[in-house]
Design brief:
alpha+beta; Transposase; RNaseH-like_sf; 7 helices; two-stranded antiparallel sheet; 143 residues; 50% helix; 2 domains
């Protein structure tokens, strides 16, 4: 993990928040990331991990290098998992391993007619995207 962090430029020196803590913070508190203030997130970082950061310092950690770090780490984890699945495919109990992800976005008012009644109370229109990957099938196509 540290190798990927240094390669992507996410970690340049020893910081207060290390790569594993940053990853855990983003994964386990992800439901708070988009709608909480930086000050609130700093409080959660202190309460859960004992790390004191200013809102400005935390904001500076959310940069293009952090995005690249998370993308490369996730990609490497998927590749490694697929090697394991491919090697033990015949002895697995499960026929499928599904990975699901979903997100939704409110749309501008100009889309109200085309996408009506899908926005709920916050918007008259919205779009929802759901992705599903079958890791069993994916492991045969990714080498």
């Amino acid at each position: 993990m540290d190798r990927i962090a240094r390669k992507t430029g996410f970690i340049k020196r020893n910081d207060k928040i290390d790569t594993s803590t940053f990853l855990a913070f983003n994964i386990f508190l992800s439901h708070d990331m988009c709608d909480k203030s930086l000050a609130t997130l700093c409080g959660k970082l202190a309460a859960n991990y004992g790390i004191l950061l200013s809102p400005q310092a935390l904001n500076e950690k959310f940069n293009k290098e952090a995005v690249e770090f998370m993308q490369k780490l996730f990609t490497e984890m998927i590749f490694n998992q697929n090697k394991i699945l491919k090697k033990h495919r015949n002895s697995l109990t499960f026929k499928r391993i599904l990975l699901n992800d979903a997100t939704g976005y409110s749309l501008p008012n100009k889309f109200n007619d085309e996408y009506s009644e899908s926005g709920g109370s916050s918007s008259k229109s919205a779009i929802k995207i759901q992705l599903q990957y079958d890791l069993q099938d994916l492991c045969t196509s990714i080498q």
